[in-house]
Automatic annotation (TrEMBL):
Residues 3-169 form the Flavodoxin-like domain. Pfam families: Flavodoxin_1. The lineage of its organism: Bacteria, Bacillati, Actinomycetota, Actinomycetes, Mycobacteriales. This is Flavodoxin domain-containing protein. Residues 153-176 are annotated as: Disordered. It comes from Rhodococcus chondri.
Amino acid sequence: MQVLVVYESMYGNTRHVAEAIAKGIEAGATVKVVAAADAKNENLATYDLVVAGGPTHVHGMSRASTRHGAVEAAEEPDSTLTVEPDAESEGVREWLASLGSATGDAAAFDTRYDGPVLFTGRASKSIAKKLGKAGFTLIADPESFLVDKQTALEAGEEERASQWGRSLVQEKRSRS
Ligand SMILES: Cc1cc2nc3c(=O)[nH]c(=O)nc-3n(C[C@H](O)[C@H](O)[C@H](O)COP(=O)(O)O)c2cc1C
C-alpha cells in the first residue's frame, strides 16, 4: 500500500503531526511525506491513500494573507515562534485548488487551538470537503491535533497522530 501525506506548516507543529501520522502508517504501508508546496509534482493516481492536513487559520485553511500574518507574528520582538523555511509558499488550499478530478481514498487533518470547534473552527473540515469534491472517498472523519496557547503541540498529540495513522491503514485494509 502506498500512502502520500501532504502537509502545510508555519511553525512546525503540523509537520510534526504529519511525520507522526507517517510513522503510524509506516507499520503497515509505504509512506511519503511532502509539503503542500511540492505536492503538485506528485501523481496522486499512484497512491492508495492520500492524507492531507494544515494549520487552522481564521477558522479554516490558511491563505496567503494569513500565512504572511503568521510570519509577521513570529517576527514580533517577544515571539518565541520559529517559522518553517517554506512558510510563505503555497499551502494546502492552493494544492487542493490545483487538483483535477481524482479517484481513490483520502483523509484530512489539521492542527488548531484547544477549545470548542465553534470558537476555533477547523481546517480539516474544509480540506475533507475539497478532497471529496475532487472525487476522493473520505475513509475517516476529519481529525484535529491540538496546540496550546504558546502554539506548542499538547502532550500526547504526536502519539495520537501515530495512532490515527495506524487506524487509517487498518480502515483501508478492511475496505479492500
Ligand atoms: C494567522 C493565524 C490565524 C489563526 N487562526 C486560528 C483559528 O481560527 N483557530 C484556531 O484554532 N487556531 C488558529 N490559529 C492557530 C494555528 O492553528 C496554529 O498556529 C497552528 O495549528 C500551528 O501549526 P503550525 O505550527 O504547523 O503552523 C491561527 C494562527 C495564525 C498564525
